[in-house]
Amino acid sequence: MTGRRRSALVGPVLVLATLVSSIISSFGAPLIPTVARDFHESLSTAQWSLTVALLVGTVSSPVLGRLGDGPRRRVTMLGSLVVVTAGGVVAALAGGLGMLLVGRGLQGVGLGMAPLAMATARAELPQAKVPSMIALLSVSSAAGLGAGYPISGLIAGAWGLAGAYWFGAIVSGFALICVVAVVPSSAGRGTPNRLDWVGTVLLALALVTALVAVAERTEWGWGSPAIIGLLAAGVVLFAVWAVQQLRTENPLVQLRLLRHPSVLSGDACAMVLGVAMYMVLSGVTEFVQSPRSGGFGFSASAVVAGLVLIPLSMFMLSSSRTLPALVARAGSRAVLTLGCLVAALGCGFFAVFHGALWQAFVMTGVLGVGLGTTFAAIPGLIVQAVPARETGSAIGFFQVVRFTGYSMGSALTTTILAAHATGNGQPTVGGYTMVLWISAGICVAAAALAWFLPARPTQLTPAEHLPADETRLLEQTDGDDLSDLSSWAVPRPDDPRQRP
Question: Could you give the number of structural domains in the chain?
Fold first, then answer.
């Protein structure tokens, strides 16, 4: 392969790797009833097949960003794809839920791939093509998550649960081969950042203990020594991690950014909205697959359950494109508050009207409008409050907070459905409506946070502001994994941030 042709293929291969990783990582919500049936587990236990992937994604996003810096970028990308491929094989061969969770955890590493692909695009492509490729990679990441829902259901319906995971292993293996053949080595380019291993381990342990306590609360009881011990351990671990992050020279997450009121407001909204989003994703896909003989549900296949979530992805992408115009007309605070209320309206609609399948499609569409607007507005709110040099850390923190909300939402759904289950372990209609009402309440709480929590813009000099065109790109791409934004920006002669 000639050097010119190889260079021309770098962009498409990066899009392929990002798309594949996102699709595989989303092999979760529509397959939960299938996992429960095949492994003879309750739905609440099978929910961990989604939660564990999100948990690993929460930790892997900042870790891969650090490991993939400079000379280790290509090696890190290859290693990530190897892990994702191995996870597909392990999940396909799993004879029990424990082994399946190991495989799904390995697949969850793919959620941290997008920042690596963006950093590679910045380093390998001509400067003029970088902004458009960054936007395409961000959209590919979001579109991959949406496409994974029906694809996983379709394959599982035709070839079973193992077939879905074999498909994931094959396509991620193909992406791995393409990266090996096309993406050039980054060895010798700059000095790699040190990875905060202590912070990584502490964050993982804190999240695991907290999520297990939330998910198993109904099974073990709030007053049980195990739950009390896990909750106490989680609080202590989070406190130790926070202190460690504030004191270390190269922290995994820049907690000091919370001193900016807008960062605190935006990240608080991102956390609670992430919880609501994954409560709905899990609850709705399980509801529509519930047999009609139970008095509710639609006896839908995993394919239909995946299709129900397509409006969510479509409207999240389309509504984020309208954000700059909305912000210019009404302001960030009003747009963020309204988006939260629209999301609450969608949840409340299906909690009241759930007698026909089309109502599930309407609900996910309305939810997509609300979440697309809010998740796209938050990054713009954050970057306007921090100096340009802190943009990467601020958006990286936003991603960690949002993924943490996703994991908590999945675990909380487990608790609610288990608390409203029949004698055979199947959730009741009251359990599902409770999930929706709590999600709606969380969205209303997020609206209150957006409106009342102080979000004063920090007084920055013109040289410290991120240029308007870069802020606009960040908003139009939902802020998705653009944690390296400030470093890939194309220098301009009049740009005071231009580096020698």
Answer: 3
Instruction: Report phi then psi at 164, rounded to 5.
Output: -65, -40
C-alpha angle with apex 8: 7 to 12, nearest 5 degrees?
110
Report field, pTM of the whole predicted structure over 0.70: yes
CB of 111 closer than 8 Å to CB of 403: yes
Per-residue model confidence as pLDDT tens digits over 279-332: 998 899 889 999 998 889 999 988 888 889 889 888 887 877 777 788 778 887
Which has more pLDDT, 74 or 468?
A: 74
Q: How many angstroms separate the CA atoms of 306 and 193, rounded? A: 40
CATH number at residue 323: 1.20.1250.20
Structural domain of 444: 259-500
Choosing from 232, 251, 270, the residue where a domain stops is 251
Nearest Cα to Cα of residue 145 among 318, 367, 312: 312
Residue 69: count of CB within 10 angstroms of its CB: 22
Instruction: Please report, for residues 83, 226, 260, the alpha-carbon distance to residue 56 in angstroms, rounded to integers and kept in the order given.
Output: 12, 23, 28
Task: Give yes or no: residues 185 and 204 share one domain.
Answer: no
Residue 344 has pLDDT above 90, yes or no: yes
- Distance in Å from the first CA to the final CA of the chain: 34
d(CA 178, CA 171): 11
